[in-house]
Prior knowledge:
Elements: E1 4-11, H1 14-31, H2 36-53, E2 58-66, E3 69-76, H3 96-104, E4 108-112, E5 118-125, H4 129-137
Antiparallel strand pairs: 1-2, 2-3, 3-5, 4-5
Amino acid sequence: MADHRFALELVLGPAELSSVRHIARAQLDHWGWGAADDALTIVNELLTNVVDHVPGRWCSLRMRCEEATLHIQVADAWPRLPVRRPADSHSTAGRGLALIDELTGQRWRVVPGPHGGKEIHCLLGARCEDCSEVNASRRPIRNSAL
């Protein structure tokens, strides 16, 4: 698979989430990415967090497909890190980070963004040099409110 890149910068509201998912799916289909459902679940979780928690709701979505690895990056302008929340059996929220852990095999990290916000990087697919770099520099999720 060749090196492919995709990027969007947007201000999101709940109504735009569906459109962005459709755009991302079309791009992944165009690339022939076989695990589009997993990738779209990650994109949806990260963008939903922007809608729910980031003042102003500005973000960027970048996807890069190299060889057999898909790199998903969502950046926003808010420096507060995502927080794992315990989810009980009655809760409809609080499972996003656990789901991302499961889908990526814990190959994701949060890093400071260049303009004071944060970037969340997730990898899907076969293990590669980029994957070990992400694991080596992954920062722990802090226990502060989102």
